[in-house]
């Protein structure tokens, strides 16, 4: 009997996810893309997409009634088996559509834990996971008590933005009230958090059948907030395996994803190791592939493409199981910077460990990979200094992570 073809609906308001859609096609699935009308002329991988539907958008904002109506109309002729949000901003949209169509997968409640910075902190804290002290920007008496007890500095964070977008650092509690006055009715969409100094890490995971089947821990150079707001070169590198830090991060990540209820897919999660007490605190998580070309970092180190593995999970048919493929155990480092040149000449970066270079206007970027952790660290240190000389643009890096 011929195997039924699955139809995967991919939802994204940003241009990304090519390798996900390509892998779906390799798995024999039908691929339908729902995206922004403003991306109608984008260079999508049309050889892997069966149908594209567009949603009117203003600054990437979609009217959810339009989304529900549009997908429901589509479903009159398309039997939708899976719904996947390829971008952070579309996690709630995909969850709402799943709920409406009763398609299996993450629903509204779980989606909040992977989009809402307040929800994920509250849930993690309730289960004993350490987080920086925080308060919902809601009740003024509660906020005043928080400011009295928790010393500055603070960070004011929007609950539903990605990366470092909209985050403000405050040196004193008095600075908060003028900002809240400006925010007006938007105040409740923010949280206030104690600013914790320390090294920032990320763990990138593959989850299947409620289990973390793959995870790799990495450490940022400059914290992402500094990169976004001060225009520094963005760097990250995979951690030396077997160290106390690596093992602690992997365990915290496993605990967190179990608590928040991610049953399958991929995740990018950030932690900070406080410089004063050495403890690891949870910062934020997501149900998506990490931005800023972290997928290329992981692939260079391990030989696994997170987009492709995510697609393989979504394409598993009834009676089958996802099996993590064999992978290598190299180390890798990633550098990205805005470049003052329109086309950055990176030909001088010719060490044999350079396995990938970024081709994007007014950007410079590369990935190095080696079996030696020390070699990756040395190259990353040397290349970072050279990037500042050869390419560095003084304008801040974009808040929105790029792929």
List the helices and strands and how they pair.
Elements: E1 7-12, H1 18-26, E2 30-36, E3 51-55, H2 64-74, E4 82-85, H3 91-101, H4 108-113, H5 117-126, E5 134-136, H6 140-149, E6 154-158, E7 168-170, H7 174-183, E8 190-194, E9 198-208, E10 211-220, H8 224-230, E11 234-238, H9 244-260, E12 265-274, E13 280-284, H10 294-302, H11 306-314, E14 331-338, E15 354-357, E16 363-370, H12 373-390
Parallel strand pairs: 1-2, 1-4, 2-3
Antiparallel strand pairs: 5-8, 6-7, 6-8, 9-10, 9-12, 10-11, 11-14, 12-13, 14-16, 15-16
Helix pairs in contact: 1-11, 2-3
Keyphrases for this structure?
3 domains; globular; 4-stranded parallel β-sheet; alpha+beta; Rossmann fold; Dna Ligase, domain 1; D-amino Acid Aminotransferase, Chain A, domain 1
The helix-and-strand class reads alpha+beta
Task: Please count the helical segments.
Answer: 12
What percent of residues adopt helix (DSSP H or I)? 25-40%
Cα Rg: 21 Å
CATH class of the largest domain: Alpha Beta
Whole-number tally of structural domains: 3
Parts with pLDDT < 50 across at least 5 consecutive residues: 398-402
In the CATH hierarchy, the architecture of the largest domain is 2-Layer Sandwich
Characterise the protein shown here.
The protein has 12 helices and 16 strands. By secondary structure, the protein is of the alpha+beta class. It has 3 domains: 7-105, 3-Layer(aba) Sandwich (Rossmann fold), CATH 3.40.50.20; 133-194, Dna Ligase, domain 1; 198-390, 2-Layer Sandwich (D-amino Acid Aminotransferase, Chain A, domain 1). Mean pLDDT is 94; it is low at 398-402. The strands form 3 sheets. An 8-stranded antiparallel sheet has the order 13-12-9-10-11-14-16-15, sandwiched between helices. The protein has a 4-stranded parallel sheet with strand order 3-2-1-4. It has a 4-stranded antiparallel sheet with strand order 5-8-6-7, with helices on both faces. The protein has helices at residues 18-26, 64-74, 91-101, 108-113, 117-126, 140-149, 174-183, 224-230, 244-260, 294-302, 306-314, 373-390, and strands at residues 7-12, 30-36, 51-55, 82-85, 134-136, 154-158, 168-170, 190-194, 198-208, 211-220, 234-238, 265-274, 280-284, 331-338, 354-357, 363-370. A hairpin with a 5-residue loop joins β15 (354-357) and β16.
